[in-house]
Amino acid sequence: MMGLFISTGRPVNALNAWLAAARIDKGGIFRKVDRWGNLSKRPLEPSAVNAIVKQRAEMAGLEPGEFSAHGLRSGYLTEAANRGIPLPEAMEQSRHRSVQQASSYYNSATRRTGRAARLIS
C-alpha cells in the first residue's frame, strides 16, 4: 500500500486510523485539511510538512530550529546505521534514490561508532 514498509507498532496504528478516518486509499497520505474539515485530494507541500514538524517540536518544548522534515529522513538513516541495518534495506524505507547521499549518513554513524573509532582509547 502506497510504498510503506513499516509493519507494526503505534506509528502503524496511527497511520491506519488516519487512512480510515480520511478515507484515503490512494495518493498522498498527508493532505491539507481546511478549517471546515474538508480534506484535499492533493498531498501537502514539503514546506507545510516542515512547518508541521517545527510546530510539533515547539509544542513538545523543544527548539523548533533544530528540527526539520529533512532531519526526520536523515535521522532515520543515521539511526538505521547505528543499529546495523543494511543500507539497501534502510533505503527501501527512507525512499532515498541516491546510494551516495544515503551512504553519507551511514559513513557519519560508522565514524562515531565503528571499529576505527574505538582504536584510539
Helix run count? 6
The biggest beta sheet, please? 2 strands, antiparallel
Mean pLDDT: 82
Strand order of the largest sheet: 1-2
Spans with pLDDT under 50 lasting ≥5 residues? none
Q: State the domain count.
A: 2
Pfam families: Phage_integrase
InterPro entries: DNA_brk_join_enz, Integrase-like_cat_sf, Integrase_catalytic
GO molecular function: DNA binding
Keywords: DNA recombination
Brief characterization of the structure:
This protein is mainly α.
Which labels suit this protein?
single chain, 121 residues, globular, mainly alpha, 2 strands, 2 domains, DNA recombination, DNA_brk_join_enz, two-stranded antiparallel ribbon
Q: Can you describe this structure?
A:
The chain is mainly alpha-helical and 121 residues long. The chain folds into two domains: 9-44, no CATH class; 46-114, no CATH class. Helices cover 57% and strands 7% of the residues. It contains six helices and two strands; from the N terminus they run αββααααα. The protein has a two-stranded antiparallel sheet. Strand 1 (31-33) and strand 2 form a beta hairpin. Helix 3 (69-82) packs antiparallel against helix 4 (87-94) and helix 3 (69-82) crosses helix 5. The protein is globular and about 60 Å long.
